[in-house]
Amino acid sequence: AMTLAAATRRWSVSRDDWTLIKTIARYALVGYVMGVTNDLADARGTLLPDHYAPLPDIGFDYVPHVPELATLPDHLIKLLFIVVFLRIFLASRARRQLAALFLEQHMLLMLLRSLTVALTILPAPAPTCSYRVSAKPAHFLLEPLLRMLRPDGLSSWCNDMLYSGHAMFFVLGALFINESGGHWAWRIAGWLIAVGGIAALISARVHYSVDVVIATIIACLVFWHYQIQVRVLFTTCSETVTYDVHGRHHHRRQTTRHHHLHRYHHATAHHQHA
Fold it and tell me: What does the alpha-carbon distance between residue 235 and residue 256 come to, in Å, rounded to a whole number?
């Protein structure tokens, strides 16, 4: 019979588990906050003298307008999310750390976007954009949850322009996968989804070009801040399962692994103190 101590050890939650659980909780809260600020941007959009008076945009001048692509970025975000976490799952020795790290980066991007999206309201670039939020919505705090449950929820807002939440996720996901190493197909898939999603944003007039450019710059800066931690975790995972057939390089690889772990903990401690 299983003893109480053995059962406790079996169901105990590790430090990495708690970190991931807390990160997921914060991630959900920040996502909700961003939804509220999107609603605020739409509510302030009703103050514009002309709801549809798009600004001049170089991307619109050269990219054909295809309204049917309006929901494609939503689907590509979900696909890229699956690809990212599938790549994390295959990094079996650091799944929880990598998942928490990716969510933390996206969470920071959402927080930054929440600060900017309702500050200055730009006219909606899509002629088919419908205004579902009045100047004083009846369910202001409930509206973001209702929208996110819809298949096209991420694209249902009209005036949440600067900067693009879609583009920031596409760039972050592609950079994260690019740093994971492994087979080249992972990197090709990540960048194809990202480039296709960004092109669809411009073609469907979901965002202005400036929204995409600023989102790309900010996503790159945030990722580069975490890049060493991401690289070390993925490198550690690959090197712990790659040994010479005759065991000649076993000690050197283990030494390299401990070196990477030391760099990771050092980078993490530096990030926490910063």
Answer: 10
pTM (two decimals): 0.78
User: What's the rounded Cα separation, in Å, for the pair 130 and 61?
Assistant: 23
Task: Say if CB 117 and CB 38 are below 8 A apart.
Answer: yes
**CA atoms of 234 and 227, how far apart (whole Å):** 11
Q: Cα–Cα distance between 114 and 111 in angstroms, integer?
A: 5
Which amino acid, residue 30? V
- The token duo for 18 is 């708690």
Q: What angle do CA 206, 207, 208 make, to 5 degrees?
A: 140
- Over residues 53-87, the pLDDT tens digits come to 788 999 999 999 998 898 899 899 999 999 999 99
Nearest to 101 by CA among 117, 116, 115, 87: 87
